[in-house]
Amino acid sequence: MSGLASFVVPDLDSASEVVEELLTLLPSSSSSPPPTNPTTDPADRLLTGIENIVPDTQTGSYDMRNNSPGS
Questions:
Q1: Where are the domains of the chain?
Q2: Of 15-19, 40-44, 65-69, highest mean pLDDT
Q3: What is the pTM of this model?
């Protein structure tokens, strides 16, 4: 275990809501394609500087906040 918490909720009802939302991201069976969501992000957009996001070494670190839109 890493000790990383992706979701923190105050009670069981909230936890159930989070689990329900997460389950909508999975296919209904192993033979079904995953659900898709419409996007306005153009598939042919330029990704300048993408080669500099991940460090050269496997043990290198980076801050994802510097690589997300609006940063």
A1: 7-34
A2: 15-19
A3: 0.49
